[in-house]
Design brief:
Elements lengths: L1 E3 L6 H16 L11 H9 L5 E10 L4 E11 L6 E7 L9 H15 L4 E5 L11 H8 L3 E12 L4 H15 L3 E6 L7 H8 L2 H4 L14 H13 L2 E10 L2 E11 L4 E9 L8 H16 L5 E7 L3 H10 L2 E12 L1
Parallel strand pairs: 4-5, 10-11
Antiparallel strand pairs: 1-2, 2-3, 3-4, 5-12, 6-11, 6-12, 7-8, 8-9, 9-10
Helix pairs in contact: 5-9, 9-10
């Protein structure tokens, strides 16, 4: 097996790349794993933004000239310039032949060329395999160690209106002067500066274990570029924000691909100075109502939270999210 150039503009190569990712994540006994649609993946690989660039790495069988392994690096371009989020995938029936190790070598080569010294990855593990997963054993052989533990929880839709009303009423009792607003697609221009200021805090506020991170550096212009890409790849954002004196002090965002039947939680954050008002619960309810109104066809919402994030876990479980997998964050230092 060998690493050869991967052309993200070649439709046939991208389709095969996506097939490998999809089968590796969905067809080895872990059907709950999230994965991009082909439309999303194509756009992400082909359309770098000022915030982020995704580099594909492919392994090929020289005897057949067939792609047999797919991997990528997600490179932040504004902040956390020492890090890369990486992924390596091999279809279930082709595992055990060294393809994954070849992919990791190719990923490491790209990471070194980009000046990245911290590689981060995630893997969905069944609870019963938490201590004995062959995925974790393989990752350890590639030099990765567990740096944080998250739990994937899924919410089956629709959520009963009665439950949403109950949680909304509980939150209303502590909400005070905060205003909740919800949007499909782009946020209004006037909210972007304070939304960016808050969202740039996300990596510092979320429990990250031993993962080394710094604050984000995105601007309103970067958010608009992200909006353009989302529209191009058929992804719709559902966002709810809490405002005080016209400034965003809390937000919650869901992303849904055009051809997907699942929604993905992108993030929920309340500014530290504004906690204790049940804003997280209020925003989650507002977003679920918005989502179910506009996409009644969806089957579930997928989220992950650090195992130690008791506050967010409690909100999610109150709304009906149920744990389905352990998701370790794996770290390798170059």
């Amino acid at each position: 097996m060998e690493i050869r150039p991967f052309d993200p503009r070649d439709d046939q190569q991208v389709r095969r790349f996506h097939e490998i990712l999809w089968r590796a994540e969905k067809e080895d006994g872990r059907p709950w794993n999230p994965m991009w649609t082909l439309e999303e993946l194509s756009g992400i690989l082909r359309e770098p933004t000022r915030e982020r660039r995704t580099v594909g790495v492919a392994a090929w069988d020289p005897a057949t000239s067939r792609m047999v392994g797919a991997g990528f690096l997600m490179l932040g371009l504004l902040d956390n310039l020492d890090s890369a989020w990486v992924f390596a995938a091999v279809e279930p029936e082709l595992r055990g032949r060294g393809i994954g190790a070849v992919l990791v070598d190719g990923i490491v080569e790209v990471a070194r060329a980009e000046g990245r010294t911290q590689l981060l990855a995630g893997a969905g593990i069944p609870f019963e395999d938490r201590e004995s997963s062959p995925i974790l054993a393989w990752a350890a052989r590639q030099g990765f160690r567990t740096a944080n533990i998250e739990i994937q929880r899924n919410l089956e839709l629709p959520v009963a209106a009665e439950l949403l009303d109950e949680v909304a009423e509980e939150a209303e009792q502590k909400r005070g002067d905060y205003e909740v607003r919800s949007f499909v697609g782009r946020l209004p221009d006037e909210l972007l500066p304070s939304w960016c200021e808050l969202n740039n805090m996300f990596m510092l506020e979320a429990p990250m274990g031993e993962v080394e991170v710094e604050a984000g550096a995105s601007t309103p212009e970067d958010v608009r570029e992200r909006d353009d890409l989302n529209e191009k790849i058929g992804r719709t954002m559902f966002s709810s924000v809490a405002l005080l004196d016209g400034r965003v002090v809390a937000h919650s965002d869901l992303g849904v691909a055009r051809d997907d039947d699942e929604a993905h939680q992108w993030g929920t954050l309340v500014h530290p100075d504004h906690r204790g008002h049940r804003l997280g619960a209020a925003l989650k309810v507002a977003n679920l109502r918005l989502l179910q109104e506009h996409r009644p066809d969806l089957r579930r919402v997928i989220t992950t939270n650090a195992e130690t994030n008791a506050w967010m876990v409690a909100i999610n479980e109150r709304l009906g999210f149920r744990p389905v997998a352990v998701v370790p964050t794996l770290r390798r230092t170059l």
